[in-house]
Amino acid sequence: MKKVKIALLGLGNVAKGVLSIIRENKEQIVKRSGYEVEIAKILVRDVKKDRGVEVPTEILTTSYEEILNDNEIKIVVEVMGGIEPAKEYIIKAMEAKKQIVTANKMLLATCGDEVFEKADEMGVSFQYEASVAGGIPIINGISQSLTANKINTLYGIINGTTNYILSKMELENLNFEDVLKEAQDKGYAEADPTSDIEGYDAQYKLVILSSLAFGTKIKPEHVYREGITKINSIDMEYASSFGMVIKLLAIAKEENGELELRVHPTMIPETHPLANVYDSFNAVFINGNAVGDMMFYGRGAGSLPTGSAVVSDIIWILRNNVEVENMQPVVKNNLWEMNIKDLKDIESRYYLRITVSDKPGVLGQITTIFGANKVSLKSVIQKGVKQEENIDVTLVLITHSTTEGLIMDSIERLYDLKTVKSIDNIIRIEDFR
Amino acid sequence: MKKVKIALLGLGNVAKGVLSIIRENKEQIVKRSGYEVEIAKILVRDVKKDRGVEVPTEILTTSYEEILNDNEIKIVVEVMGGIEPAKEYIIKAMEAKKQIVTANKMLLATCGDEVFEKADEMGVSFQYEASVAGGIPIINGISQSLTANKINTLYGIINGTTNYILSKMELENLNFEDVLKEAQDKGYAEADPTSDIEGYDAQYKLVILSSLAFGTKIKPEHVYREGITKINSIDMEYASSFGMVIKLLAIAKEENGELELRVHPTMIPETHPLANVYDSFNAVFINGNAVGDMMFYGRGAGSLPTGSAVVSDIIWILRNNVEVENMQPVVKNNLWEMNIKDLKDIESRYYLRITVSDKPGVLGQITTIFGANKVSLKSVIQKGVKQEENIDVTLVLITHSTTEGLIMDSIERLYDLKTVKSIDNIIRIEDFR
Ligand SMILES: NC(=O)c1ccc[n+]([C@@H]2O[C@H](COP(=O)([O-])OP(=O)(O)OC[C@H]3O[C@@H](n4cnc5c(N)ncnc54)[C@H](OP(=O)(O)O)[C@@H]3O)[C@@H](O)[C@H]2O)c1
Ligand SMILES: NC(=O)c1ccc[n+]([C@@H]2O[C@H](COP(=O)([O-])OP(=O)(O)OC[C@H]3O[C@@H](n4cnc5c(N)ncnc54)[C@H](OP(=O)(O)O)[C@@H]3O)[C@@H](O)[C@H]2O)c1
């Protein structure tokens, strides 16, 4: 039996999943890869810390040099996260002709190019299936199995925490703050949940997916981003009354060499396959000009699902090229030059929730403003609410398809009306056409 | 720009999709594979036949030798179907060191081994993503991206025609025969629909999927098979009243080295992701011990979706090894020896629809028979129907989990009862546990 030594950088959630899979599924790995995998070293910051996992203390180290200089270690698995020192470590490992597996979306999204180029230069493998949507093989799917296609659109529910929160809000009619707190208590959401609930995590992942799908260089700042903190259970109820649900959607569309990239809460028809993606599940829905509509669905995070992607990447390397030059071109994001569409030019339908004073003619004033901007309204719902002696009214408007620019301009004009008390929420509606 | 010549065997539905993608997505293919792909030869039976597609007549040929002896042709794409001469042609191409792409599920399911071994012996690539579920990358998914897992269960809606028929029956409350006829008129079902509606097509596909997922040799006769011809819109209605839908499901489960393999109409909870797979869409739902639940969803057939898989396979070969020895072990179905579970030992819940005479004590007699076989009933519904002067009654029984053997024994005993007029349908219920 051939043996191979690998090293892990980090011993957190993902690393523990990798450890457990390598132990538990030893037979599968041996038979499928032809190798017995030995975890020879694990890099940590503190070798004494109790991480609730049994590992021989002699394989823990705080010195990266020890891993780098060990010629028997053929594969370095970076599961520590963050940009530095992760990037430096990966580059050095490549220079030492080690093959790399990573789960680091932040690194890939912000400085992937540098790492891709180094992998190419050194002829080593650089695998990162785990970086997006955990166990779902979306990276391989796009970069190996859908290559015959010109991808038209890509829609993803790619952040488990926010999907968990929105699902709870929808199904149990709860408020954002309450669900967030519960999720934090249960460990489903981080103590600092900013990266998830403000959409940064999904933004990074969309950068990675769309770079591959459209073969072009994309940076986080190309992706418009909006989190879910403003979503209210009232919006959920209205959505439901229109036959829709609200999801944090990552959206990428290509048309005539122009790319539209955005992450924001989105109302989608409840009959769409993505509408049934509940809880912390992830899904990516793709339309390609040959394959048509397709969807990948599964666990987007967690120790074992993410470990599944990492270990499958290790097996891929072992099967293909652990001893030889990597032959797959690793850089695939420099095939086309594309423009990024300005947010104001994107087309969408919109849901608007507005509070107005209940005075005669208000609705007329409002529709006039939209009309002047050529925004036509599909439906208007009016609901009375009593606030501090004044009678205020909630107006819910659904527009026909229009542009973001025209909507924003209309909103600005609405603020000029004395009768408009507040614009409570604006949510884009996706019809998947 | 590097150029590569390929040949197609056959110019039917799939071949036309391949042609159209190679023309339409030329730029994508060139950029992603690094090659300009030229279709140098197409094998047909009759060069004069009008196939509604424009191809230069000089590339059509009825002589396979012409393709075989052309050393410039590096890849042979077999899209003619059937066992012979397809098998002979593939083997000869491999012996001539050509790389192979096929969509031929029948060939793979019935004599895949021989072809796998030849590919291994000759060191050529043998790609067959298109053989199961059209454009959905389920073959790559299982054989490359989920390799870290021990797969526990696999459930597939892998025949588009039957899913189309069942969807229509369910959603429009129609009868099997009417929908079948309509599907045939529209070209969605073949003039001879046996392979689809009797479950042979799904059986072949399950052989291919489960061989890969469980790394063991599986033959069509290992898979219990039952078609959808007995499904009645009455069964659909009852299913719906229990919160279930009926799908033709391909099921594979592994436990302690024992495999359970079957294709049959199945009642599944309407909340399960597979329940929402309508129309001619396909989906494969997998549970792996690391990745958990995951699902692949998309177009399972048709010219372009199937062509998408074929052309992506061509690109894979071009990227990796068109000029060199294939390095991926191609035979992955001989890793484990497994027993095939006897049908009588499978565990399931059951739906039974029975016609009985409306006499006192009938229900008692029936429950006694089930009780004697330790089959306990979860619910019993009784519905009066008047037939030819006698008052007959429809009984619908839902059992708790039991074995197929005990159910079949109970059924046999039911026939002994004079009051039991007919056993109208027996449908297995899957709870995905
Ligand atoms: N968790 C998921 O479900 C998931 C899913 C997909 C992708 N990812 C990605 O996977 C990576 C790891 O995530 P995680 O959840 O496993 O993180 P985590 O639980 O926070 O673990 C990080 C580990 O890295 C170690 N580490 C951090 N900086 C280090 C340094 N400078 N030197 C040595 N060791 C260092 C930490 O050491 P100490 O133990 O000594 O602190 C810890 O063991 C991240 O890139 C993340 O984005 C995670
Ligand atoms: N259709 C789908 O959606 C789909 C999806 C997945 C997989 N597949 C598989 O793909 C394969 C092709 O299916 P298809 O639907 O494209 O079939 P098809 O439309 O019936 O086309 C078959 C083609 O092969 C040619 N052919 C058959 N036997 C031949 C022989 N002995 N010598 C030369 N040419 C021969 C036929 O030639 P003539 O034109 O001269 O008769 C015809 O052009 C099958 O294995 C099928 O199972 C199909």
Question: Would you write up a description of this structure?
Answer:
The structure is a homodimer of 433-residue chains. The first copy, chain A, has 433 residues and is an alpha/beta fold. Chain A contains 14 helices and 18 strands. In chain A, strands 7, 8, 9, 10, 11, 12, 13, 14, 15, 16, 17 and 18 form a 12-stranded mixed beta sheet that branches. In chain A, strands 3-2-1-4-5-6 form a 6-stranded parallel beta sheet, with helices on both faces. In chain A, a hairpin with a 3-residue loop joins strand 11 and strand 12. The longest helix of chain A has 18 residues, at 105-122. The mean pLDDT of chain A is 93. At the A-B interface, helix 1, helix 2, helix 6, strand 12 and helix 12 of A face helix 1, helix 2, helix 6, strand 12 and helix 12 of B. Strand 12 (292-299) of chain A pairs antiparallel with strand 12 of chain B, so a sheet runs across the interface. The structure holds NADP nicotinamide-adenine-dinucleotide phosphate (NAP) (2 copies). Residues 10-15, 43-46, 49, 51, 79-81, 85, 103-105, 130-131, 134, 301-302, 306 of chain B line the site of one NADP nicotinamide-adenine-dinucleotide phosphate (NAP).
Write the layout of secondary structure elements.
Two copies of one chain form a homodimer.
Chain A: E1 2-9, H1 13-24, H2 26-33, E2 35-43, E3 60-61, H3 64-68, E4 73-78, H4 86-95, E5 99-102, H5 105-122, E6 126-127, H6 138-145, E7 151-157, H7 160-172, H8 176-185, H9 194-197, H10 200-214, E8 224-225, H11 233-241, E9 244-255, E10 258-269, E11 281-288, E12 292-299, H12 303-320, E13 339-340, E14 347-357, H13 362-372, E15 377-387, E16 390-399, E17 402-403, H14 404-416, E18 420-429
Parallel strand pairs in A: 1-2, 1-4, 2-3, 4-5, 5-6, 8-10, 10-13, 10-18
Antiparallel strand pairs in A: 7-9, 7-11, 9-10, 11-12, 14-16, 14-17, 14-18, 15-16
The structure holds NADP nicotinamide-adenine-dinucleotide phosphate (2 copies).
One NADP nicotinamide-adenine-dinucleotide phosphate is lined by residues 10-15, 43-46, 49, 51, 79-81, 85, 103-105, 130-131, 134, 301-302, 306 of chain A.
Organism (chains A, B): Clostridium lentum
Protein name (chains A, B): Homoserine dehydrogenase
Binding site for NADPH (chains A, B): 105
